[in-house]
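User: Let's play a game. I give you a shape written as tokens, and you guess the letters that built it. Ready? Here's round one.
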């Protein structure tokens, strides 16, 4: 019957439309991108990565980020580079610690170089701060200079013997002329280093702002200065002096999201746009600023290369203080 024929035709049309839709969705398959953080699962980078992963589904139909933390630093990244081919749905974090410090002090540890990656985005920047045991009553860079000039030993808690924090301390006290007095005391994590000064194990610590906040609020430490050009602009440490304007060297701690070199440019662009949207999300931006005390600091490839070079210059100048 005519009705039957029409029904078959409409079913056929529906079928054809389904096929067409599926075909057009073929390029739009949702891919899961695993994001490997090579540092402590409880650390700042891992926490931010988890937050970005949670938000990724809100901003992309084609990319879902999944955060994973495998503590191991160079070893973790060595394995990632060895196991990851171009266009694999895998991302990894590297920062100035590996690209600028380990590459100079311990190059045999690295089975990769900057050329093995293609830059996606900078997840955040952290402006580290120098805290001091409250009993020392050091509240400004002028106070610090006066203290260093006395010539006694200066003990500073840092996350790892050759970490970003260790080099910030060495560059600051070294450029003050107090490099020979400096005793760097390494801990297993940035949080532990911050606790050390609170317990009176060291006179100073270099840490993320968030890790010293509680001790600062309890008056266990003073926060002397920030490793940036200008004073901290907002948050609980607003007004803390930046070392740069006093002529001291500094760098921000950064977390570069990298894909494997050779990955399709269009895919890298899509990933960069996704991270851009996540970092522009009001909830994420507020959490980064207010809870984590970090900066949203999106960067270009040129910015990354300038950062890596700046830190390499600092490492070359102050490595004798750090590596003894």
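Assistant: Ready! My guess for every position:
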């Amino acid at each position: 019957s005519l009705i039957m024929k029409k029904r078959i035709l409409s079913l056929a049309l529906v079928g054809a439309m389904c096929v067409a839709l599926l075909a057009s969705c073929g390029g739009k398959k949702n891919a899961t991108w695993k994001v490997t953080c090579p540092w402590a699962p409880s650390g700042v980078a891992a926490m931010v990565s988890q937050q970005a992963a949670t938000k990724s589904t809100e901003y992309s139909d084609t990319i879902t980020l999944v955060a994973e933390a495998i503590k191991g630093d160079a070893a973790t990244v060595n394995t990632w580079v060895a196991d990851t081919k171009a266009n694999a749905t895998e991302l990894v974090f590297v920062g100035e610690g590996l690209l600028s410090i380990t590459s100079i002090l311990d190059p045999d540890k690295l089975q990769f170089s900057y050329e093995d990656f293609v830059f996606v985005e900078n997840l955040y920047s952290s402006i580290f701060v120098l805290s001091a045991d409250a009993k020392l009553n050091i509240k400004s860079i002028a106070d610090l200079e006066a203290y260093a000039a006395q010539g006694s030993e200066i003990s500073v808690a840092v996350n790892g013997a050759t970490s970003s924090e260790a080099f910030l301390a060495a560059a600051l006290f070294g450029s003050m002329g107090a490099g020979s007095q400096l005793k760097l005391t390494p801990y297993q994590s940035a949080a532990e280093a911050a606790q050390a000064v609170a317990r009176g194990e060291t006179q100073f610590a270099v840490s993320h702002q968030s890790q010293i906040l509680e001790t600062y609020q309890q008056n266990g430490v003073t926060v002397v200065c920030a490793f940036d050009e200008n004073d901290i602009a907002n948050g609980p440490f607003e007004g803390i002096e930046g070392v740069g304007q006093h002529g001291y060297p500094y760098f921000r701690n950064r977390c570069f999201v990298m894909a494997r070199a050779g990955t399709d440019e269009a895919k890298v662009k899509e990933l960069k746009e996704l991270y851009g949207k996540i970092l522009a999300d009001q909830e994420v931006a507020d959490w980064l600023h207010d809870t984590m005390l970090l900066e949203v600091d999106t960067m270009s490839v040129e910015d990354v290369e300038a950062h890596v070079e700046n830190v390499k210059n600092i490492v070359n100048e102050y490595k004798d203080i750090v590596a003894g």
